[in-house]
Hints:
The protein is α+β, with helices and mostly antiparallel strands. The protein has 5 helices and 4 strands; from the N terminus they run H-H-E-H-E-H-E-H-E. It has a 4-stranded antiparallel sheet, with helices on both faces. Helix 2 packs antiparallel against helix 4.
Amino acid sequence: MNSFKDLVQLRRSHRKFTNEEIDPEAVRLIMRAALMAPTSKSMRAWQFVLVDDKMDLQKLADAKDMGGQFVKDAPLAIVVLGDPMQNDCWVEDGAIAAISMQYQAEDLGLGSCWVQLRGRGLSDGTTADTVVRGILDIPENLCALCIIAVGHKADERKPQNEDRLKWENVHVGKFNQQQ
């Protein structure tokens, strides 16, 4: 990648992956990006579970009713966790780590997609957090924020279109309701 400006424009969500395995060094670099992500008070209180077992990927894909089925076809899923009792900024810290992983994956030529877990679930009322906790033996003190599915891209996505940026949502000085 030539610049962060290009990386931001090129990073798109990919939900289709090839069967090709991810190089262990690439996985290490993705996790390095997560572990270097800024956190509130430098707590670095997040936890990450890397999942590459096909049965567990299928189960994770079914953790909520909609929006996560593609996880079963990803060679790697990274579950982002936090402890709300230890860190009141666990959601923000986890989100920063998650997007850091996504940018690193893009820089390596890999595709990724965020799967929201917090606040999601199944139609019977079971939370996605409860489902994921059961699949991965996650301790009760940790909550699942999201899954980042990662793999070699099986589809092409056009870069972000600069002409579609919503500059009207940017306010200088004070919020301008008259735009």
